[in-house]
Design goal:
Length: about 350
């Protein structure tokens, strides 16, 4: 089966069956009252198509805030024995709609731009599509382009697809499954920037690995000078607060912004050339000797060797870790000189 994608993000099952864009002029002036009702309460005439499934799911689901984009993949699947034909427009307000309700069944308002797009007397371009049995058509859309989600809370999302385009409140549609959406208080600015693994291209994510593997991961990353991986399991705040002077200053600061800035500067200084902090010394080799842990705290003893001109220093590092939300992170360490070779 051949799949391709157009510049609007439409993925379809057979490029040969899409026809060129056509134009249809949508007459809505006679339906102003009905349009306003439709915008407020949503379409009321679902389309019944046995075997045609319309589903939505999160695309790259993450933590959502009131200012977040909420990407959803909407998919039509032909689970029937017949060819299914429908229309799709790059002017998505005439193809797709979303409803978002609170747990008290109160509907959120549509976004202002969506209302403007729906009520513009402009020609609507579209393509005719055909899905053979077993084929799919999918698009990825941002729910916030359709619905204004201004407050944190728990919501229910449902989508409607208009196979013959939206022309008035009586337009037929296919209704999707429901998704539960949790919107947290705060802002996307509070979320760390996504970091990409430079070796694989994948997003770096913390995994629930045991304490000794956390230490091994960090030290291996340090040997490769891969700072993003090195800091992935480092509790920068915990490490910063091990110094009594820094801790006192940290507690005196009244704003979160001051604390974030201090932690950012501290992390950057750790990566500076010539930094003498033993925590970021570059080991030529290391061997994990012992791991001890409870359900929430752990210590890992490591023998590390550092090569210098004419000799090698051997040090014993003890890394202290704690577990939060199943993730172990290093928040402190101790070091002892063992010998010189």
């Amino acid at each position: 089966m051949h799949y391709s994608e157009d510049k609007n993000g439409c993925t379809f099952a057979n490029a040969a069956i899409q026809l060129p864009y056509r134009g249809v002029f949508v007459l809505k002036k006679a339906f102003v009252l009905f349009v306003l009702i439709s915008i407020l309460v949503g379409p009321v005439f679902p389309q019944v198509n046995p075997g045609i499934e319309f589903t939505i799911r999160y695309f790259d689901k993450s933590i959502y805030f009131p200012d977040s984009r909420i990407l959803v993949r909407a998919e039509i699947y032909n689970n029937s024995a017949q060819t299914y034909r429908f229309k799709a427009s790059p002017q998505r307000a005439f193809t797709l709609d979303f409803s978002v309700k609170t747990l008290a069944n109160e509907s959120l308002e549509h976004a202002q731009q969506f209302i403007i797009d729906r009520n513009s007397d402009q020609p609507v371009l579209y393509r005719d599509f055909s899905l053979e049995p077993g084929e799919r058509y999918a698009i990825v859309e941002d729910v916030t382009r359709y619905i204004r989600i201004a407050r944190p809370g728990v919501y229910i999302i449902r989508a409607s697809y208009f196979p013959e385009l939206y022309t008035d409140p009586l337009s037929r549609f296919i209704s999707s499954n429901m998704l539960t959406l949790s919107v947290q208080a705060g802002s996307t600015e509070d979320v760390p920037e996504t970091i990409i693994d430079r070796e694989t291209g994948a997003v770096l994510r913390q995994l629930p690995i045991p304490p000794d593997e956390v230490v091994e991961y960090a030290l291996s990353a340090r040997q490769k000078a891969d700072w993003d991986k090195f800091f992935l399991y480092i509790d920068i705040e915990g490490l910063y607060l091990q110094d009594r002077g820094r801790e006192n200053s940290y507690k005196r600061w009244s704003s979160d912004q001051e604390r974030r800035t201090a932690l950012h500067v501290y992390r950057e200084r750790l990566t500076d050339d010539g930094n003498s902090d033993e925590f970021i010394l570059l080991p030529n080799s290391f061997t994990i000797q012992k791991t001890s842990y409870t359900p929430t705290e752990a210590s890992v003893i490591v023998i590390e060797k550092f090569a210098y001109t004419g000799y090698t220093e051997v040090k014993q590092f003890t890394y202290f870790l704690r577990r939060r939300d199943r993730i172990w992170t290093i928040f402190n360490y101790e070091v002892q000189n063992v010998r010189t070779e």
